[in-house]
Design brief:
Helix content is about 25%, strand content about 25%. By secondary structure, the chain is α+β, with helices and mostly antiparallel strands. Helix 1 packs antiparallel against helix 2 (about 45-80). The radius of gyration is 31 Å and the shape is elongated. Residues about 1-10 and about 270-305 have low confidence and may be disordered.
């Protein structure tokens, strides 16, 4: 029995099929943004908006190609399926110049278009303002962030912001609607500056200063954006977070003057102590001791018999699970970090979970003396802020 070909598809049917496929493509692309795992978040910066537009273009083209290819496969399987009455192969076609030209030209045009729009987006993201509103050097050091604010010349340091607490190890405050110039610096290993809402990631490479600008949308005044290191840098990588706070220009100017005044009012101590570890926390941060805390034991004006507690960190654990201190009087924790290139500290919690005392971060191997204010009788849990699994109990009596 000769092979019988099915009737050709009518043009109207083909057009309707293409219209349905295109509609499905646009619907999928429009709904994709409702799934955070599939689509990036709404951009919070002007540079991020350009990246989001590029993502939209690539995603829609990918969906169109996927629907077209899969649709053609499904159509061919259904249209030219073998029937029980088919006993011979249909006539075979070998080569079709027109089809081959079409499927060569279309991908070439798509690739060239994607190259052009990607190049334009890259140039926009890489563009730097000649007169940025703020200049900041972001220093990534295992395992925390610090932000050194610079004068308009981009060289003169003004002050440094560090940890903000609550698991945030670095804070950057910026005015919304203005270009912020950021220089990335690392004194140890490769890190990465990544803020999901900025749709942006840039490596922080030792010995090289990477620089970029970003501008937070004016409508995001008052918002706080969480960031993190996105390059595996060691055992504390998972806790290496920071935040970017967007404020209005008047609020930023007020905050800036307060920080400059505080930096001028707190010069570093002149000369090292007579013996023992530094008297005001780890040398890495240079932060002053907590307000109201007494000087360390042995320093001028300190209590003659201030209680001292020895505590050390090694292999991501405290050497003691329990320590004791007297109630109602200040005491000193002599803390030693024995983990090389790893940051630790001691944070004491009140029974209600609030912070009673938090020592500055110490980058090992190094020591620090923490001056703890008087505590009431009771049991206080303590931990390392960077490594919450490092815990212990302080008994005050």
């Amino acid at each position: 029995m000769p092979f019988m070909r099915s009737k050709p598809t009518r043009p109207a049917t083909l057009v309707a099929s293409l219209a349905v496929g295109l509609g499905a493509t646009l619907a999928v692309a429009g709904c994709a943004s409702q799934f955070p795992e599939l689509y990036p978040p709404t951009a919070a910066t002007s540079q991020g908006a350009d990246v989001r537009t590029l993502y939209d273009i690539v995603f829609i083209l990918a969906v169109i190609i996927f629907v077209a290819v899969e649709g053609a496969i499904i159509f061919a399987v259904w249209r030219y399926r073998r029937k029980p009455t088919d006993t011979d192969l249909p006539p075979q076609t070998h080569g079709n110049n027109l089809v081959e030209i079409i499927w060569t030209i279309i991908p070439t045009v798509i690739v060239l278009y994607l190259f052009i729009v990607s190049w334009q987006t890259l140039n926009t993201v890489e563009a730097k303002s000649d007169h940025p509103g703020v200049r900041v050097a972001a220093v990534a050091k295992r395992f925390s962030w610090s932000f050194l604010y610079l004068a308009n010349d981009g060289k003169t340091p003004l002050f440094t912001t560090t940890a903000a607490g609550d698991g945030v190890f670095g804070t950057m405050v910026v005015p919304a609607g203005e270009a912020i110039d950021v220089k990335l610096v690392s004194p140890d290993v490769i890190h990465a500056f990544y803020v999901p809402k900025f749709l942006f990631k840039r490596d922080v490479v030792p010995g090289r200063t990477n620089e970029f600008d970003f501008t937070v949308d004016p409508g995001d005044v008052g918002q706080t954006f969480r960031g993190q290191c996105a390059e595996l840098c060691g055992s504390g990588h998972g806790g290496m977070t920071f935040e970017v706070k967007a404020v209005s220009r008047p609020d930023f100017d007020k905050w800036l003057q307060e920080q400059i005044a505080a930096a001028k009012a707190s010069p570093p101590p002149s000369g090292p102590p007579a013996s023992g570890p530094p008297a005001s926390g780890p040398p890495a941060s240079g932060a002053p001791p907590p307000s109201g805390a007494p000087p360390p034991s042995g320093a001028p004006g300190s209590p003659a018999a201030a209680a001292e507690v020895d505590l050390a960190a090694q292999n991501i654990a405290f050497d003691k699970s329990t320590i004791e201190a007297p109630a109602g009087v200040p005491f000193v924790i002599k803390f030693t970090n024995n983990d090389a290139a790893t940051q630790h500290n001691v944070e004491i919690k009140n029974p209600d979970g609030s912070v009673a005392f938090k020592g500055d971060l110490v980058t090992g191997v190094a020591s620090a003396t923490y001056n703890v204010p008087p505590l009431k009788s009771g049991s206080y849990p303590f931990q390392c802020t960077v490594h919450p699994t490092m815990t212990g109990t302080l008994t005050v009596k």
